[in-house]
Amino acid sequence: MVFLDLSMPRVTGWEVLEGMRVDERLRTIPIVIFTTSSRSADKERVYALGAQHFLTKPVTFAGLVNEIEAVYRRFVSGDANSAASAGA
Questions:
Q1: pLDDT in single tens digits along all 88 residues of the chain
Q2: What architecture (CATH level 2) is domain 2-82?
Q3: Interatomic CA distance for residues 45 and 16, integer angstroms
Q4: pTM: predicted TM-score of the whole model, two decimal places
C-alpha cells in the first residue's frame, strides 16, 4: 500500500500515480491519496487514474489509523465488508 500526497516537490503525486499505473510491476499496489485537496475534480481524477482511496487532510491520528486499517482490510486482506468504512 502506498500513501501518496498530490502536492510533493520535484515530482507531483499525479506523476507518481500515473507512473505506477502504467508500470506492470507496480499497477496492482493499492494507492491511498492523502492530500489537502477537497476538490471533487481531484477526487474523480485520482479514481480514474486507479487510486483506491482519497483521504483529505487534516484528519486526527485516530481517524488516520482507522482509514489505514479499513483500506488494508479492503485491498490487502480482501475484506469486502470494510468497503463502506474505507470510503468506497
A1: 899 999 888 999 999 999 999 999 999 898 999 898 989 999 999 999 999 889 888 778 898 888 888 888 887 777 655 444 444 4
A2: 3-Layer(aba) Sandwich (3.40)
A3: 14
A4: 0.74
Residue 17, amino acid? L
List CB contacts of 50: < 8 A, sequence separation 6 or more: 17, 20, 21, 27, 31
Cα(16)–Cα(6) distance, integer angstroms: 9
* Beta strands at 31-35 and 53-56: parallel, antiparallel or unpaired: parallel
- In the Cβ-directed half-sphere of 24, how many Cα atoms lie within 13 Å? 0
Instruction: Give the domain ranges of the chain.
Output: 2-82
